[in-house]
Structure formats: C-alpha cells, structure tokens
Amino acid sequence: MTLEASVVGGSGFTGGELLRLLSGHPEFAVTQATSRSYDGKTVGSVHPNLRGLDLRFSDPTDLDSVDVLFAATPHGVSMEQIDEFEDAADTVVDLSADFRLSQESQYDEWYDGHVCPEYLEKSEYALPEINRENLPGADLIAAGGCNATATILGLKPLFDADILSGDEQVVVDVKVGSSEGGAGGGEASSHPERSGIVRPYAPTGHRHEAEIEEFLGLSVSFTVHAVDMTRGAAATCHVFPDGPVSKGDLWGAYRESYEDEPFMRMVAGGSGVYRYPEPKAVAGSNFGEVGFEVDPGNKRLVVFSAIDNMMKGSAGQAVHAANVALGFEETAGLDFAGLHPVGAP
Amino acid sequence: MTLEASVVGGSGFTGGELLRLLSGHPEFAVTQATSRSYDGKTVGSVHPNLRGLDLRFSDPTDLDSVDVLFAATPHGVSMEQIDEFEDAADTVVDLSADFRLSQESQYDEWYDGHVCPEYLEKSEYALPEINRENLPGADLIAAGGCNATATILGLKPLFDADILSGDEQVVVDVKVGSSEGGAGGGEASSHPERSGIVRPYAPTGHRHEAEIEEFLGLSVSFTVHAVDMTRGAAATCHVFPDGPVSKGDLWGAYRESYEDEPFMRMVAGGSGVYRYPEPKAVAGSNFGEVGFEVDPGNKRLVVFSAIDNMMKGSAGQAVHAANVALGFEETAGLDFAGLHPVGAP
Amino acid sequence: MTLEASVVGGSGFTGGELLRLLSGHPEFAVTQATSRSYDGKTVGSVHPNLRGLDLRFSDPTDLDSVDVLFAATPHGVSMEQIDEFEDAADTVVDLSADFRLSQESQYDEWYDGHVCPEYLEKSEYALPEINRENLPGADLIAAGGCNATATILGLKPLFDADILSGDEQVVVDVKVGSSEGGAGGGEASSHPERSGIVRPYAPTGHRHEAEIEEFLGLSVSFTVHAVDMTRGAAATCHVFPDGPVSKGDLWGAYRESYEDEPFMRMVAGGSGVYRYPEPKAVAGSNFGEVGFEVDPGNKRLVVFSAIDNMMKGSAGQAVHAANVALGFEETAGLDFAGLHPVGAP
Amino acid sequence: MTLEASVVGGSGFTGGELLRLLSGHPEFAVTQATSRSYDGKTVGSVHPNLRGLDLRFSDPTDLDSVDVLFAATPHGVSMEQIDEFEDAADTVVDLSADFRLSQESQYDEWYDGHVCPEYLEKSEYALPEINRENLPGADLIAAGGCNATATILGLKPLFDADILSGDEQVVVDVKVGSSEGGAGGGEASSHPERSGIVRPYAPTGHRHEAEIEEFLGLSVSFTVHAVDMTRGAAATCHVFPDGPVSKGDLWGAYRESYEDEPFMRMVAGGSGVYRYPEPKAVAGSNFGEVGFEVDPGNKRLVVFSAIDNMMKGSAGQAVHAANVALGFEETAGLDFAGLHPVGAP
Amino acid sequence: MTEADCVECGAEVSLHDDLEVGEIIDCGTCGAELEVIDVNPPVLDRAPELEEDWGE
Amino acid sequence: MTEADCVECGAEVSLHDDLEVGEIIDCGTCGAELEVIDVNPPVLDRAPELEEDWGE
Ligand SMILES: NC(=O)c1ccc[n+]([C@@H]2O[C@H](COP(=O)([O-])OP(=O)(O)OC[C@H]3O[C@@H](n4cnc5c(N)ncnc54)[C@H](OP(=O)(O)O)[C@@H]3O)[C@@H](O)[C@H]2O)c1
Ligand SMILES: NC(=O)c1ccc[n+]([C@@H]2O[C@H](COP(=O)([O-])OP(=O)(O)OC[C@H]3O[C@@H](n4cnc5c(N)ncnc54)[C@H](OP(=O)(O)O)[C@@H]3O)[C@@H](O)[C@H]2O)c1
Ligand SMILES: NC(=O)c1ccc[n+]([C@@H]2O[C@H](COP(=O)([O-])OP(=O)(O)OC[C@H]3O[C@@H](n4cnc5c(N)ncnc54)[C@H](OP(=O)(O)O)[C@@H]3O)[C@@H](O)[C@H]2O)c1
Ligand SMILES: NC(=O)c1ccc[n+]([C@@H]2O[C@H](COP(=O)([O-])OP(=O)(O)OC[C@H]3O[C@@H](n4cnc5c(N)ncnc54)[C@H](OP(=O)(O)O)[C@@H]3O)[C@@H](O)[C@H]2O)c1
Ligand SMILES: [Zn+2]
Ligand SMILES: [Zn+2]
Q1: Which of A19-23, A36-40, B67-71, B266-270 has the lowest mean pLDDT?
Q2: Which residue has its alpha carbon closest to ligand 3 atom 47?
Q3: CB within 8 Å of D140: residues ≥ 6 apart
Q4: Strands E2-5 and E12-15
C-alpha cells in the first residue's frame, strides 16, 4: 500500500531531489509540492529532469493531509511551521538544521535561537549509519547537514574502534560544490565568479561543527572551501591519534563499521584512476565513500570521505531514514548507482 | 525468466554504461564483461560507480554462451568477430558503426570497407523512434552513432509531416562532450588542453553524414565541435524548408511523431531556465529532447536536439532496442530521470 | 605625454577589462572609474586582479574632465548621457550598442528606438579591421558587439575577395561564454544552472544581426548558444558561395585581408592540438583567430572565428580603436599574448 | 643590452610559460627552445598563444651558447646534463627539483638519489621572498616546487614574527590544477576522468615536504588534492601556535614580511566576492596571495595561500629570480595583472 | 480534474477543479503561459508575454 | 636564413641554413607539413599526410 508524501520547498535543490526520489519510489506517491514563487507551475518547469511528472506546485499555506511530509526549506522555516507540518502528516522529515541538535543552548550558540525547543528531544537524526536503531516509528526526523554527514561518516569508525576517544586533534578540510548553496544565489555564485575556484567560504566557525560535536563528541578544526563542481562534498580529516595505528587497523575498523551498510563503500588505495573517495564517483547516488591513509612520520591518519551533498548529504539521507522509520526496504527508491564517466555533476 | 547478457568491451565508456544498465535491469543478468587490458580485475576498479558489482573482466577470446551479447568495441572489431559473437549469443547488439549502414559501398566511401557485407542486410538499426517495427525478433542490432541519433531525432518529424522532402538545405552544427572519444584519449583530450574549449573537431566530412543520409534520405552540411562537458550531444539544425512553416505546424509535427514515445520530450519555449533542449537536462538518462523555433526573416527553422551520447546515443539506445526486440517493457532498466541541478555531467 | 582616461561603468565586466588595459597602457593614466553600487570602494574590491591599483569608484553623476572617456554601461545608458560624456571628454569610446548602427530606423526595428539619432552619423565603428581609415580623429567611437565582431571578422575576407557578394545563404552558429551576460546575472547564470551547458539562448532574432547586415551587407541566419566557459565567443559560419572555392582561394583571401593585421591570426589545419580557431587560444588577449575548411560535397565553406568577448569583442577593441584614433602604436597596452595551457578562461 | 636566453624543455607547460615570459621581457631575447618530440616545428604549433613567435624547436643535444639557460625538464634530467648546461650558459635557472635541496641525503630519502651532489651547495633557491639576498650573481638557480612555494609563502611570516618556531603542528591541505602534471598525461588526466574532481592525489609523503622543511625548518602534515582547474595551487595551512594570536598580530606579521614585496598581496576578509586568497584571482600572473583567519575555539590559525603553479610556482618565479640575479628591475617581464572575470584558467 | 487544449502546442493541459478566470497556468508540454478566459467549459488563451530576461 | 613559399597557404616560410632534402618542416602560418624537395634554391612540397588521430 502506497503512502502519500508531500514536499514543502519543492522548487529548491533538495526539494527537487526529494521529488525525483519519491516519484520513483515503490512505496510513495507524491501528492503535493509547494512553492510560493512557482505556485501553479508544473514541477518540470523548474526541474527539467522531472518534465514527465504530472504535478504542479501549490502554496505552502494550504498543506494536503499526507502520510509523510518532507520539508526542504531554509533554516528557520520548519521550526516556525512545525505544528502545521505535524497536523498535516504522521511523519515529518525535515532537511534543515532546525531539529538536528538536542539542546536549545546549541541553537543559541550556533544559530539564532529556537522557537520550539520542546521538539528537540523527540526529533531523531536521520543518518542511519549512526542512528538506525532510533528511527523506526520516529515521527520527526532531522536530516543531517551535508558537510557534517561527510565528516561524521569519515570519522565514526575511528570512534567505534577506540582509535579516537574525542580529545584528539582533528583538522577537517572540506571541499564542496555549488548546489550546497541552494537555488537562487547571488553574485558570488554566478557562473563567471564561481567557476574554476578554490574559495575559502567558511574559514572558521562553520555551524556544522556543532553537529559533529553532538554526534561524535569531538571538537574539530573545520574549514570549508567551495570548488568547481555542482554536486559533492569531500571531507579530508587530518587525525592525530594517541598511539600508532596501522593501515590494517584502519581496514579492520572501517570494515567493522560499514561492511553491512548498504550505502557505504571503502576505497583506500589500489590501482586505477579512482583510488580514494571522490565526490564524482558517488554523484547522483546515495552512496558514501570513505578511505584513509597513514602518515607515520607525522603521526597522522588522513581520512577521506565523499558524498553527494544533495543525496547522502540531504534528500537521499532523508529518504533512507524514512525507509528505516517506516519499515521499508532500506534501499527502496535509492538504487541509482551513479555514472561513469561523469564530468562535474 | 532472466536472460543472460555479456558485454564485450566492458572496460570502455559505453561498455561501462551497458554494465550499469544491464545490472539494474529486471530482465537481464550480466554474466561476462570483457577487457584485454583489465583482464581479471574487478569491474569496479575501472568504473567506480559499479564497485558494488561482483564481476571481473575476462578476456574477449573466451566468450560465454549468453542470450544477448552487447559489443561496445571500436569500429572494425565487431565485423571481424561477428561469427564468434553470433555463435556465443542468440541476439547481438553492436554499438559500433559496423552494421549501421545497408550497403558495402557506403563502407567503402565513408569507412575502410567492410569484411562481412552479407550481414548488412540483416542487421537492424536500433533507434526505436525510426525502426521500432523491425526490431522484434531481430538478431543483429546496430545502435546508432550519437551525433547521427541527435540529428535524426531532431529532423525526423519534419519528414513525417512532409515539411521536408530531402532536397532542402540543412546545416547541422553539433556540440559534443569528451566521453564521445571513449576511454584513453591522447594529448588533445587531456584535461588542460580540453577543458573550456569550443573546438571544431570535425569541420567537414564526419562519417555520421552517411547514417543521416541513410535514414532520412537527406544530405546534410555537418560540422561537429567539442565543448566542455563530459556527456552530451546537442545538434542545432538550421533548416530551410520550401514554404512558410508556423510554430503551430511544428508543434503539430513533433507531437504527432513523439507524443507517444516514452523517451522523447518536446521543449520549445516557455519560461524558466530550461526553454530549449539541453544535454544537461537529459544527462545520465535515456531521454532525448527536441525543440524548435521559426525565423521567418531568414525563411529558416531552427531545430534543437539534445541527448546523452552514452545513453540515447549508444548504450541506452541499445538496451531500449533490446527491450523492443525481446518483447520487454520498453522502459525496463531505463527509468533513471536524470538530475537537477547537475554541473557538466 | 600621458592622456587622462575615465571609465564609466567601471565595476562591470568590460569596465574591469578597460581598467586593466588602461592602467597598463603606456599612453594613458586612469583618473576615474564610476560605479553607483560600489561608490567609494576600491577597484580591487570588485576586480581582484586590480588590487594593486590605487583607485576608488566614484559616482557617475560627477564626471571628471578627461581626454578620453570610455563607457561600459548597459544598452541605453550612453544615449541618455552622451551630452555629459561629450562635455567631460574630447573623445568618447562607447562599448554599448547605442552608437553602432547608422540609422534611427534600425534602432526602432532591433532595439527600443533611439533618443539622440543625430549622433549616429558621426559615430565610428571601432573595429579597425573594417574601419581603420575612419578612426583617426574620431570623437565618438562605438565598439562592436562581441558576436557581431566574431562573425564580421570571419566573413569579411570573403567579401574582400569577391567570394561572397551579400546574396548568399550564410548560417552563423555562435557559442559564447558567461561573461557575455555581464556582472550580476540571475538564476539562469548561477553556477549550478549554467555550468556544463549547451543552451540555445538566442535561437533567432539576435540583435547583432543588424550590425552584421550594416557592415557586411549580408543577412545571416544567426543562432547563439551559451556554453561552459567564461570568456570567449566562437562563430561557425556555414557559407554557401555561388561557385566552387578551393582551400587555396581561401588562404589567398584571408592572407590578403589579414596578413598585416597586428591582431589577426589564421589557423586552418596543420598538426597539433589547436588546428582551427578556438576561444581559449586567444583568451585574455586581443587576438582574433580565423580559419576555414571546404566541403565540396555540400558546396559549403565552413569559417571559424574565435575571440575573447571582453577583449577583441569589446574592451580590447575599444582600446585598439582609441590607439588608432589618437595616433598611438596600434598594439599599445594590448601586448598580452594569452596563456597556454589555460582551462576555461 | 639584451641578454640571450634559451629554454630546454620548451614544449612542456612551464617551458611554454618561460617562452611567453622571455619573449615579452625587455632584457631578454630567446634564441633557442628545445624539444625532442617537436624538433623542427614552430613553437606556435604547440603553444597556440605563441603563434606570433618566429622560433622553431631544436634538439636539446645541440645547445646554443647563451647568457641564461632555463631548464624546464622533468626531475632527473638537469642533474644529468648540468655540465652541458653550464658550458652553454653563464647562468642556469632550473625549474626541476634537482637543485632545490642542500643535502645529498635528502635526495636519497625523498627522490632517487643525486648524480652531482657537488652542485647542491652552490645552487640558490629562486624564491626571492625568502632568498633575495643570495640571488645576485648566482649562476645556478633552482626554482621552487609549486606546492612548496604556496606553503612557504603562506607560513613564512609566522616564522619571521616568531609566532611559529618550527615545533608546532601544522596541517597543509593543498588543492591543485591539472597543469601541475605537465603536458602529456595519461588516463587519470584525461578530460572525462579528471573534470569535476576532488581527488586525493598525494594523501601522504609528498616530496615537497622536504623543501618546506629545508626552508622553514618545519615538518608539515601534507596532503594534496587535484581539483577542477587547469592553473593554480591553493594551500590551506591549519596552524596550531603555542599561545593566543590575534588577527591584529597576523596583519602585523604579514605586512612586515610582504608589504614591500612586489608580487605578494594580502587578502583576509573584507567585502565582495573575493575575500581570501584564490588561485583564480592570480591566474596567469606572478602574484601570490596570502590571507588568514583565527579560530580561537580550536586554538588554530588558518592560513590561505594561492598562486599560479606555472607562474609564481615555477616559470614566473624563475624569471623573477633571474631578474634579481642579473640586476634587472624585479618585475621586468612579469607585469601581467591577471584577469577578471576568469573561469577556470 | 478537467482538461483543455493548449493554444500554443495543442497538448492537453490538466486543470484543477477550482479554476478561476484570469488565472495563469503553464502548459506542461510547451511551457507556454496560458490565461484562463472562461471556466465552464474551460477556455485558455496565451497570456500576455512578459518579456522575461533570461541571462546573457 | 633563406625563405620559400608555403605550397598550402602561400605564406613565406623561413628556412634555416643547413636545410636538407627530405626534411619536414611545418608552415608557421597554416601549420602544413612541408617536405624539402630541393635545397638550392629551396623548394617545398606538401609532405605525405599522416592521418593523425586527433581525439574524440
Ligand atoms: N543544498 C544542499 O546541499 C543541502 C544539504 C543539506 C541540507 N540542506 C538544507 O536543506 C534545506 C533546503 O536547502 P536547498 O539547498 O534545497 O534550498 P533552496 O534551493 O534555497 O530551496 C528552498 C525551498 O524552500 C522554499 N521556501 C523558502 N522559504 C520558505 C518559506 N518561508 N516557507 C515555505 N517555503 C519556503 C523555496 O521555495 P519558494 O521560495 O518558492 O517557496 C524553495 O523551494 C535547507 O535548510 C538546507 O540547509 C541543503
Ligand atoms: N562514446 C560514445 O559516446 C559512443 C557513442 C556512440 C557509439 N559509440 C561506439 O561505441 C563503441 C565503443 O565506444 P567507447 O567510447 O565505449 O570506446 P572505448 O571507451 O574506447 O572502449 C572500447 C572497449 O573495447 C575494448 N576493445 C578495444 N579493442 C578491442 C578488440 N580488438 N577486441 C576486443 N575488445 C576491444 C576495450 O577494452 P580492452 O582494450 O581492454 O580490451 C574497451 O573496453 C565504438 O564503436 C564507438 O564508436 C560510442
Ligand atoms: N560582456 C561582454 O562580453 C560585452 C561584449 C561586447 C559589448 N558589451 C557591452 O558593454 C556594455 C557593458 O557590458 P558589461 O558586460 O561590462 O556589463 P556589466 O558587467 O553589467 O556592467 C555594467 C556597468 O555599468 C554600470 N551601470 C549600469 N547602469 C548604469 C547607469 N544607468 N549609469 C551609469 N552606470 C551604470 C554598472 O555599475 P553600477 O550599477 O554600479 O553603476 C556596471 O559598472 C554593455 O552595453 C554591453 O552590451 C559587453
Ligand atoms: N607544471 C608545473 O606546474 C610545475 C611547477 C613547478 C615545477 N615544475 C617542474 O618543472 C619541470 C617541467 O615541468 P612541466 O610541467 O613543464 O613538464 P612537461 O610539460 O612534461 O615538459 C617537460 C619538457 O621537458 C622535455 N624533456 C623531457 N625529457 C627530456 C630529456 N630527457 N631531455 C631534454 N628534454 C626533455 C619535454 O620535451 P621533449 O620530450 O619533446 O624533449 C618537455 O618540453 C619539472 O621538473 C617539474 O617538476 C612544474
Ligand atoms: Zn502547450
Ligand atoms: Zn602555410
């Protein structure tokens, strides 16, 4: 029996991904996609890949009753409208930062406070690799931030295997594509100014530090660069563990954590062109790649992690979490393998 | 009941697409992928998106018996080995130019001759939009050239609707991505030399002119440019019909030809960012987009056509044709919608 | 003795190029650069390559007296302010379309009319390759449109050599980069939407047809595509002359027209990676490349032409014309050779 | 009086840059450019921007006598041929790693040993910002590695100002363009495989660590990623100093070191699109940009540094050093400002 | 849901039930902006063209 | 230095002094590969075309 789903913020980038995924999902039927700016227009007029979809945007003030409501709105919108969302749907999956952290104080520190902190306790972080056991039956699910997701996926096995405890020094140097900024975009994201760049866009103080600290218990030195691709987030974690760690230890740790994960791939050496994680190897798919190398001279581990920011880093993660929450096949609707070759997807 | 399929030339670009499509196809199981250079290596070591596939390349001299053999080898290879291919499989689908034309003399004129002209008569051109009725039961199928496919799809409705008869002047100006050259590539396709280009790579005399003439009965002035994308072929056809043609006439013609086609989309104006066919709107998918505009002052029609060269332009077309030939659902294994946004896929 | 120069519209793309060229020019000193939005800010805050320039933007309502005023404002601005410009400077060089055509009626047909048609007669088209003899002493100079410039440079030798007379059929298929749209840019020119494209942005009816007709006496079938580069305009002219033309005839014609031109290069075959004109071979420089091929089967000539839209296509052309007008060395300030390799400049 | 200069390895990427710079240099005349593969061909057939240069490649076994010989050959070539080079020229400027380090043991550790260690003592490192005083009169000059140059330029002011002493932990995460690999290139640098990437190409153990240690006395944790641009190297240095450091301290340190440097620019905040160093802001020019931010929460400084790998990172640095060595104006031949906007240069 | 033919391309445009005169909808096939002229039965006409800027 | 006319494009091609019959040089204008047929005076002819692969 198909469940009905709606997407609030359907004209945005992650909203478009949700519409693509849900309309190809065996268990869902999309009944509503909202947009204030494109109210009344076909979904295909904004998302050309969805020209085959017979659906028009409607206004978010008039929400259909559905089984699952996905919200893909900017930070701050969902916390204002959570009561309407909960009225309209049994399950709410939110892609913004509004329900990711557990404490109101974190929102005071990293964001501009919170208007309904009582929801923070009941919401569940979407990333199944770290929170699968709490998802079944959850009715408020918060998809992770894309840079945080890449980082958490890269580092988590080191905690699982007690290679890290949380006090170590970790530098995370992230490279992201232009879709991370969402649709619209000003001068800095115009094609002439943004193409071909390596641009430090969050040198320090990126809000995703809060999320990483929340879920790994680790304070990281975090810097984000914009580079010339549209999809993709790649995190390079420079890790300084207390004692010596061999590459065999690392393989053991990562296999232990991810061997049975349907969307995690380990890539750490070998031959060929693609020897470490790369965003373009997973672009368009819900896969995450992790890999690593040891640097004994500097007592360092280097961990690489790559995802598609709009898939594993948001819409894909949201659908994956919904699958777990609702008891569906975990990979339902998420079976696209990605492309090869692919330019800058 | 699943059919067994093999891919000769599985380490190449279109071979990789075939492996991706066939391994996700409900009616096929891939049993062999050949490569001389990567013999014994995993398919995923070459095609990183297929790391999940449990298959290793094997040598093409030792072909498995299968139901369907797909060949994705350079021009000239299949005609040398067609007997082995036919021995190994009930149905052979070839992606090269070796069996596209019907006359040996055409191979003498445009290629370096043909070693088994007796097969030319029995082979069927794969493009269902122009040859659907002859595909069921075919046992040798020749997938079209990507630039020819883009051109034929763009112009065919004008012939169907008697707007063109074959004597008119038509200039076809094509723009293609780097995957058209296949894996490997020399200095001209190295990243520093090939990025950011508009390079006239076939100013005149492109071999696909033969294919277009064969299937449309039209001699076209054909020029191909390499541009900075990896996937995609876009044909701009400048057409000079005998009498005046309105935009309404064109809508009528294109709807008549393509309304019921599962993979054809018409895009010709409207609002939004994507108003005419664009390769990135179909990248990764088997869709073809066609559109048009009238230029009364110059007595010209401009027809735009966009495909993914490795999908609708080869591997996708091949699978589509196999679906028709074998009586499967036409869209089986070809349901990926494409991505939005997407950079230069 | 150095002349004083100002740039109205100095915060824009071509205005930035003018500032770069003029500040490195041996005969000019830049005294003013205007911008309403960046009034008071350093030039380097907008154009990072000009961080070394000690100059701040000022408001265009308060123009310095200078020897030469360059205007790089959107269409329509210069015609409104031409009296102020003429008051402020002895020589005005305008980069917009406002003074390119000679008849008011052309502005009625192609633009939104003209407010000071009396200036049309006295203004001189900047392109020295077609109007050198009229530039010395001119006091109102109109730099050509970039797509028109590329086309005119490509076709002019065919007229000089009587290969074309003006009645022939010519299709011009242009490919341009994103800087052609100027700074700012909306959703269609955001990086995620604009990267990797082949987008028909002016299928028919492009205003530059008027300019081409004005200077070549030829009505062309003109279509412009946006492709993934920032700088560059490449025109492919498909030409159908009356009688047969050999490649030797073409070499003769092009050498005759351009052999002594300091900024024109002929590229038509040969070996190596760069065998025909390519925008990236001239990017950043004031060079224009032209080349050709014959297609006897289709009674066609194919002419290729490539320029940097912001150099030979506007700011460089403007400085070149000013050099001629003022009696300077033609190449003064324009000696940058371009780069190799270069990505998508 | 003009000096004669030759370029060994003139068909390569940095060799092409040397030819461009030297042929536009007021004090040099280029008399020879060698290439074994293109012996006899015009320089312009390989470097399209130099089509105007009347020079043909000749064989490196037959070296002209010149004042200055620039060698732009792969590592290992110059050390084999240094005697011939010294015979042919008074001054040798080498762009390879062969004479950068001072100890034979370093070549044993990081490279494959050295065949003429006696030259190591007399050679001078080219980077004027750290070695200006030793360049005048030097007759063997070794241009730095591009990634090392970016890193050294970023960190040096911290040493000058005693913010770092050499024992601190420093992570250097570098992003580079495709020209760093030189002309030619195999499958990994083909356009389809290399475009749109964030690829960890030297996760650990990069040879430039040796150079950084040699000149800063600092052991760094070094990782290099290939990203989608052709020119450019951007180093992000994550620095953990012993005590607290304010942004004011940093401005003081960097101004102290670089205020009078003709090619160094400080960019650390402000408004506009370009707020920190970016390779595309310096592409094609000899400028280096450095900037920084403080992260008190993590007791970290983040230092950004950006250069054009083929200019400040090799050919430009070489010419700059030659200017200093020979007593020319430091900026002679190096006055190109770079471009704005520019795509992925 | 009712339907009407697009005046630009002739394709069927599906219309929602509470359609109002003056409403502008786009055709899913050709993208044309269509104005609802009448509702019962529905009649569409090409909406007055907004000369939209479209980059470049 | 002597000179000869390119047989492809007609431009002057500058020739070095120790020119030998059979040598192949490219024309700086059109890029054509030219074979030295005679040296005194120098005569050039189009070199036999090597069907060079050029990507795609
Ligand atoms: N892009 C990514 O890679 C990424 C990754 C992880 C998480 N996220 C998060 O996902 C969310 C969506 O991001 P995005 O990149 O998809 O953004 P986007 O492209 O800007 O789209 C935002 C969407 O929300 C709608 N919207 C905006 N304000 C609204 C309001 N007040 N009420 C109702 N709808 C509103 C917009 O449509 P109208 O204005 O027409 O209504 C649009 O459909 C954000 O919270 C973002 O942080 C994004
Ligand atoms: N790329 C496109 O967009 C496109 C579009 C339409 C049609 N096509 C056609 O599709 C065919 C394949 O193109 P591609 O781009 O995929 O080429 P490709 O990337 O170069 O791959 C060629 C494949 O064939 C194998 N191969 C080469 N020579 C062989 C031989 N003698 N015997 C057996 N296997 C051999 C290669 O592997 P090993 O060398 O390791 O054996 C490789 O797997 C060509 O005929 C091409 O014209 C391509
Ligand atoms: N881009 C090209 O490749 C190209 C090629 C050939 C010709 N052109 C022509 O060159 C001109 C400039 O193009 P662009 O691409 O450089 O445009 P742009 O980047 O948009 O710059 C326009 C400049 O004009 C200023 N401006 C706008 N309205 C003004 C007004 N009413 N009064 C005074 N200043 C005004 C703007 O600054 P403020 O708004 O801050 O004042 C800005 O500095 C256009 O006419 C264009 O058609 C451009
Ligand atoms: N690319 C960069 O960004 C960069 C930056 C800093 C330093 N460097 C260093 O600069 C040097 C050149 O780098 P590149 O990128 O310019 O390399 P490249 O593009 O590969 O060029 C190498 C040049 O050397 C010639 N050559 C090769 N082997 C030779 C030999 N045995 N004898 C004489 N000539 C030989 C080649 O021409 P023929 O084979 O035709 O003779 C070619 O002209 C390298 O040492 C590199 O490490 C490069
Ligand atoms: Zn319609
Ligand atoms: Zn010639």
Answers
A1: B266-270
A2: C96
A3: D82, D86, D91, D92, D94, D99, D119, D122, D123, D124
A4: antiparallel
Name the burial class of residue D230, with classes exposed (0-12), middle (13-18) and buried (19+) by CB atoms within 10 angstroms of its CB: buried
Q: Does B192 have pLDDT greater than 90?
A: yes
Q: Where are the alpha helices (DSSP H) in chain D?
A: 13-23, 77-88, 104-110, 128-131, 146-160, 191-194, 208-216, 247-258, 279-282, 316-326
The pTM (predicted TM-score) of the whole model is 0.97
Q: How far apart are CA B209 and CA B148, in angstroms?
A: 7
Q: Which residue stretches of chain A have pLDDT < 50?
A: none
Among C17, C314, C320, residue to substitute to test ligand 3 (most atoms within 8 Å of Cβ): C314
Question: CA nearest F54 in B: which residue?
Answer: B188
The pLDDT score that the predictor gives to residue D53 is: 96
Tell me, what's the pLDDT at F51? 44
- Of the CATH numbers 3.20.20.100, 2.30.30.280, 3.30.70.920, 3.30.360.10, which one belongs to the domain with range C146-307? 3.30.360.10
Residue E51 has pLDDT above 50, yes or no: no
Per-residue pLDDT reduced to its tens digit, A157-173: 999 999 999 999 999 99
* C282 CB-near residues (< 8 Å, 6+ apart): C232, C265, C288, C289, C306, C307, C308, C311, C312, C338, D49
> Which ligand ends up closest to the CA of A193?
3
Q: Which of B37, B38, B49, B285 to mutate to test the interface with A (most CBs of A within 10 A)?
A: B49
CATH superfamily of the C3-122 domain: NAD(P)-binding Rossmann-like Domain (3.40.50.720)
Q: Compute the distance between CA of residue A226 and CA of residue A174 in angstroms, rounded to an integer.
A: 8
Q: For C304-325, what is the mean pLDDT?
A: 98
User: Is A15 a pocket residue for ligand 1 (Cβ < 6 Å)?
Assistant: yes
For residues C74 and C68, give the distance between their C-alpha atoms in angstroms, rounded to a whole number.
Answer: 19
Would you state the pLDDT for residue F53?
A: 43
* Tokens 């001119």, located at residue: C138
In the set C46, C142, C146, C264, the catalytic residue is C146
Lowest mean pLDDT among A249-263, B93-107, B127-141, B172-186: B172-186
pLDDT for D139 beyond 70: yes
pLDDT of residue F49: 58
Q: Where are the domains of chain A?
A: 3-122, 146-307
Q: Give me the residue label for tokens 């021995």.
A: B87
For residue E53, the model assigns a pLDDT of 43
In DSSP notation, B137-199 reads T-SEEEPPPHHHHHHHHHHHHHHHTTS--S-SEEEEEEEE-GGGG-SS--GGGBHHHHTT-EE
Cα–ligand 3 centroid distance for C15 (angstroms): 7
Nearest CA to ligand 3 atom 3: C180
Q: How far, rounded to the nearest angstrom, does the alpha carbon of residue C219 sit from its chain's CA centroid?
A: 20
Residue D121: CB partners within 8 Å, gap ≥ 6? D102
Strands (E) across chain B are located at: 3-8, 28-34, 57-58, 66-71, 89-94, 124-125, 140-142, 169-176, 198-202, 221-227, 233-240, 264-266, 288-295, 300-307
Closest residue, chain A, to B263 (C-alpha): A52
Average pLDDT score, chain F: 80
